[in-house]
Amino acid sequence: MQQPGWVQFLNMQTMKKDADLIVIGGGLAGSEAAWQSAQRGLRVHLYEMRPAVQTGAHQTEHLAELVCSNSLGSNLPDRAGGLLKNEIRRMGSLLLQLAEDTAVPAGGALAVDRAAFAQRVSKAVSEHPNISVIRQEMTLIPDRPAIVASGPLTSHGLSEAIRALSGENQLYFFDAIAPIVSRDSIDMNVAFRASRYERGDQDEGDYINCPMNEAEYGAFVTALKAAERIPLKEFERVLETEGVKAGAHTFFEGCLPVEIIAQRGAEALAFGPLRPVGLADPRSGRRPHAVVQLRQDDLAGTMYNLVGFQTNLTFPEQRRVLRMIPGLEGAEFLRYGQMHRNTFIFSPRLLRPTLQWHDRDDLFFAGQITGIEGYVGNIASGLLAGLNAARLLAGEPLLALPPTTMLGALCRYITEASAADFQPMKANFGILPELGGRKIRGKRERAAAYAARAMADLDGCLAGFVAPA
Question: What's the structural domain count of the chain?
């Protein structure tokens, strides 16, 4: 239950006596921010409203629970996600270390056992001597040093407080979650193990692949396009209640529901999440027309999620349509896909590259509410906000990372994008400044050059910086 305003006021008076910094939100960004600040000697109060107030998407009370997928993206150093990981590894990220400690096979990507990961983060943060985890909804913006990392599912009360502070409505988009099936219910007489282009540490491959011929693919796409979806009227009602005009449905391009992709053309899925490149069906030795990949979701290897299959289909339709996939005819669904609303602020008008509020030095925002997308991007923004909050209170200059680094480019994007173009952004090489000097033709060589420049510039920016032990 939401605390009355006067109770919040009394709690804030207490905070002034025994906390140097308030962090709102115990997700990826908030957990990383709290730990980074606490490691630098600050006394931190971390407010997490779950389990007292639920979000509708989370399933546990653990900190840093992963909702949509268990993948933190590419680990390859010449990929945007791999570069961002290398940057925050250099800066001493706690959550990246814990993700690597709870990793499951995923080829060239970093994927985790999401339950083990959340449990490890909860333990590390809650047992830190400088952090107090307070299970209470915060509905006011603290009038003292604070980091707001409340995430895309920010509660109505806090949303109202942010709206009052900013003087404008927040933006929003719809996001979706992929289904998870039981490993034992996958027919391995049809499905096969392999990683694209033979990547991965296991000889047999890190992914389970369900191949489709052209006829099977066509029938699947037809059924998918005609399947019943869960109406978005409830989301629209919530938005209207919060004062946001709910017009045309807005989806985040980086996480489209599979049925929306199917509407874009007969072969849209075959060139998207079902692309068969780098894979061969061992039964025929040839590349299938399309492939549905499943990625391990837990350390025990009993749960597998359908990669790229975020969906808003009704649960009965998910059972019917997804069981048309060869190898999943008898699939046991451990979690169905679902859709939820994501909220983010208009960062270009409201934030600085240091992640400080535009007209208040001691207020920071971090995580998905800023418009930075992706798990690692959110961890990275929490790291920077926590580091800068500690530097501010120590009287040290704040860090604004070079735009040639991936984290610096993300911060520059969310704080400098035009009103017409602003939407949530994941790490990608397209937001980095062009390379100077000699012309590089090859895509991989160019990516490697971007990565080398980024790490060199990061090292220069962090000269003398010592990551917390």
Answer: 2
